[in-house]
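Input for the complex:
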Amino acid sequence: MKHIYENHLLWVYRAMKTSRYFEEKMEKVYLEGKQPVFNIGAGPVPGEMHLSNGQEPAAASMIVHLTKNDTVTATHRPHHQAIAKGVDLKKMTAEIYGKKTGLGKGKGGHMHLFDPKVKFSCGGIVGGGIPHAVGAALANKKRGTDWVAVSFIGEGAANTGAFHESMNLAALWNLPFILVVENNSWGISVSMKNSTSVSSNDIRAKAYGINGYLVKDNDPLEMYRISKEAVERAREGKGPSIIEIETYRYLGHFQGDPELYRPKEEVPILREKDPIERLKNHLLRENIITDDKIKNLEDKIFNEVDNAYDFAIHSEYPEPEEALEDVFC
Amino acid sequence: MKHIYENHLLWVYRAMKTSRYFEEKMEKVYLEGKQPVFNIGAGPVPGEMHLSNGQEPAAASMIVHLTKNDTVTATHRPHHQAIAKGVDLKKMTAEIYGKKTGLGKGKGGHMHLFDPKVKFSCGGIVGGGIPHAVGAALANKKRGTDWVAVSFIGEGAANTGAFHESMNLAALWNLPFILVVENNSWGISVSMKNSTSVSSNDIRAKAYGINGYLVKDNDPLEMYRISKEAVERAREGKGPSIIEIETYRYLGHFQGDPELYRPKEEVPILREKDPIERLKNHLLRENIITDDKIKNLEDKIFNEVDNAYDFAIHSEYPEPEEALEDVFC
Amino acid sequence: METIKEKRKKLTGSKAMIQALEQEMNRDSNIFIMGEDIGKYGGIFGSTTGLYDKFGSDRIMDTPISETGFIGASVGAAAEGLRPVVELMFADFHGVVMDQIYNHIAKIHYMSGGNVKLPIVLMTAVGGGYSDAAQHSQTLYASFGHLPGLKVVAPTFPHDIKGMLITAIRDDNPVIFMFHKTLQGLGWMDQIDASLGPVPEEAYTIPLDKANIVREGKDVTIVGVQMMTVEALKAAEKLAEQGIDAEVIDLRSIKPIDKETILTSIAKTNRLVVVDEDYYSYGITAEISAIVASEGFKDLKAPIVRLAIPDVPIPYSRVMEKFVIPNADNIIDSVKKLVKI
Amino acid sequence: METIKEKRKKLTGSKAMIQALEQEMNRDSNIFIMGEDIGKYGGIFGSTTGLYDKFGSDRIMDTPISETGFIGASVGAAAEGLRPVVELMFADFHGVVMDQIYNHIAKIHYMSGGNVKLPIVLMTAVGGGYSDAAQHSQTLYASFGHLPGLKVVAPTFPHDIKGMLITAIRDDNPVIFMFHKTLQGLGWMDQIDASLGPVPEEAYTIPLDKANIVREGKDVTIVGVQMMTVEALKAAEKLAEQGIDAEVIDLRSIKPIDKETILTSIAKTNRLVVVDEDYYSYGITAEISAIVASEGFKDLKAPIVRLAIPDVPIPYSRVMEKFVIPNADNIIDSVKKLVKI
Ligand SMILES: Cc1ncc(C[n+]2csc(CCOP(=O)(O)OP(=O)(O)O)c2C)c(N)n1
Ligand SMILES: Cc1ncc(C[n+]2csc(CCOP(=O)(O)OP(=O)(O)O)c2C)c(N)n1
Ligand SMILES: [Mg+2]
Ligand SMILES: [Mg+2]
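Predicted:
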């Protein structure tokens, strides 16, 4: 049992670190072609770019409990979940580069990543992915599987109608469904306190007669523990849960966000408590891994990510006329 | 104080009785031209017809606490609230008859009654009126008045996205807003237990950090008491509430509903406990009114309603071309 | 025109729908239906009557009034390999779920580069004429037709209703299946002949992208859809008495539009009237006029006539409602003026 | 063409919007603005920058992500006599609030027989061209234009943006005010000349139902809106070098459409190209083609040309996105073919 736990924590570390490295690289790549004057449409990676640095525990410590039969839906800020869910990293990166080899042949882009092989999807409409996961959970139940569906949202999305309708359905039909609310305190420039009438969204579980959990301070271990419970309950037919995790948004809402609305001191304080560093220290302290091995692991991660970028960069762009394909099958 | 209370109860009785008599008459009128074969589009009152017989306490025992400065929004089943709110009964009846003299010159019909003089409106989209009342409450607060806004919905509407978004806004902005959920156990043919993940919607107040109240068994006196508290709190700036009242739907969802989904024994049991009769007995028992005076009052009511029907029946139809007017002002 | 099949009974539109659903559900256990009052009630406009008793609550699921929730859920269920049929009770309510319909259901196949398939049928009731007023009488054909990624069909006659619904269910793409209330042949609405027609008993398919010439003629082409096809046919009969030979095309498919059938007809008649029970601006009359004015211009000998609901909400009162919905008389008047040009 | 005013500075589209809002808010204390990130952030596309500091959180209200809630709330606030201006951040999100927009905001005045007035302005950002993909790049002009009860405007140049926004605010009817991201002249997007233009300092109004001839010509009429007007003007300049004299009409008003200006132009040029950044079917190209084919048929000497986004969701990858959005080159090609007919 201990052994599984330790392996799981290593898995979580790997997933978080992969996401972090992937995104730190993306932060730079995204600015290519956008210097000296930032132009959102320019460079190899045009369009909006929402990074999740700081929010990795929400994704990794939940998804460690899932298999590829379990469904995950995510948002406009989807990389950390996609990576944890095992989305093909090369194809995902290629998609973000708008290449023909991408997950969506360049048609989707960073906010619209679909990898049905690992049952991952995301989208750019706040709240829009929640009912999709409910539908997957419904299918899982109908077919008598023990598969679950998890929808990740930001705290801002908990004020959409889609949240409420979906939660009521999931509870009413007792579906194997879990909603993870990544509360990073901000919905673009609007703070949680200016958007939400309760202090945390686990409270809202009461409105559906289901379990609500709150994970404080972005803690990967606590998120691991709570997620395990929620996933097990879902698999056992005990119905849906809401998990809210207090997490950190290190960067702007999207790259290029001037963040004039945000106190300057906020991010440095958050970065002090970086969850990846915290988990690393835990792993070392508890002798779950050695210093050497962790370096090794990290090199593997860097390699994998670098390869994905190389693949993306060296892939071909689609032909313009391919825009006309794939409307219908 | 006693005096006010007694007058209020008489007012409630009058409002309930007016609505009941109005609707019993409508039940008959609606069938004119639809015999022997029911045809929804035929007769002097075509289209859908949703009657509220049995649900009167929800409307009267709340609206007794309101003035014409307070806003009410209602649903597809709006007569009991409209009557309690003091909507011009002649114009309302004329509207239902599709006459030029109607509230909406015949353009609105039974589901779309607007009387801005007493700040009443309703509509045919489930959940659609909730945000309107929130907006009125916002205006009331902005202008520093102590006016409130009340939205009436059915229990089915509590599962719409509009419910959730509106409640969060009202709570977040601490608005003088009250949501009354008339739980008549049915949303057309779907029972509360098949639509709603909690046993009553006052529970959902917790999801917004506000007060929730449950009025059991369609009790006009308890509804009076609770509504008084909620309205006073709203006027004092203490924020919104949800009140759910267990009420009775005596008739089908709409006239012509075959009601195959509904246990035959349900309605007779409900009718046994008729809230108007209960209040009448209370009024007599407590010597708030005498038998004679109540007859007198009832005659007045019948007269008023009969006059409204006469007015409607004898009014002119609009010219066809008037359909082109009033799109813009 | 469709080939005639053997062993056909006369069915109403509603019964044709139910038969299609039942046969397909028997064929494929992945099909299930979700919607409001589609269980014991059998669908407010009779789309599912009797199916609850046959298939039970697992495959015929009543839902709460949560259109974004349950229609959005069809996406996840379809991605998992099921084949959801969902009902939006009135097309008029589309606004509470439009994001799921056009940003998700319609686009996911494309955004995924073809990797995700969403075999979803969205059935929805359309149309007015019985004083259900501004929020319950619309067709909104073009509101759906405008958006890429959806096949949108609106059959008129029972035979087409059954065949096109079966095709829609078997299609791996999302299909909006609009059925007209008056054409359901329900006992509690106006009874019209067109709502009853011969329907083969076995399952059969009719393509989702073909208009149907329901009356051949040489003097003028009238394009209609659902009740407007019915009105056009009535008009054509009266016009025939006056020596005017109208060709009537039943559009059936709102998206994609069968241009070929229309253009071929115009090449013969040189004159076009389009009749629509949707709003005038940016509606079917606009799209078909534009197709002909750009791709059939040389064949056009007279101005195109557009008949549709003027740009006003649908009024409640019978006199006004009748005034705004085009009818056979309006068509006859227009055609008579047109053939003189 | 508009009369030229004195004392005008060059402003961007964004600054023109802000100036209109500020001047009107100073004039009338009943006006307030609600929307997501319109407070300290100043509007994602710069529609309200600086207004929060000037008017405070009571009149510039950031909202939760609850479009049905707060846009629906504008109905109640307007009925109470306030004049709400609400922002839907991207037109692409309309599906989450469409019921409030078209079943309530658009219809209540009518359903009330004219008794309820709803002076609501709904501002929303439209347009693509910067790889924001299928859910953030649409214009959806026709999705709004199709529905009765809404005035829908989409001005191009800063001068019109200011004047039409002021008119919209003063109008007692609901108005959808669409502003194009690229025409806002924002520092972090493509810089184009058209996004900067002379704007009088004082408040002024421009009617909501008039198109504008932005270039006179005699050989062909090109109708565009927003970025397509800009492309049309570019095309017209190059065509002029080749001896083709194009008239360019900036539509400005999606609903109602200024038929007269278009028909008068066609009477002169006899040829029509319509260019749209919305989807092809049931879009602006359809409606304008239909107007001309029915009401200006006699003046038309050649098939109408429709250029619009083909019926596909907007793809992310730059090469594909550029391919689907019409541009000056497409227009030039079409016109050159057309004038030969
Ligand atoms: C329905 C809808 N409304 C508004 C937006 C614009 N928008 C994109 S992200 C965002 C903030 C989301 O906040 P939150 O849910 O907390 O997620 P986070 O960005 O913090 O991860 C907003 C308002 C949208 N994409 N969809
Ligand atoms: C958004 C929307 N969905 C569905 C409907 C169809 N419909 C009308 S009334 C109704 C049931 C409403 O139930 P409830 O809210 O409990 O009110 P009641 O009829 O019991 O008064 C339904 C489903 C509608 N009008 N609007
Ligand atoms: Mg957030
Ligand atoms: Mg009910």
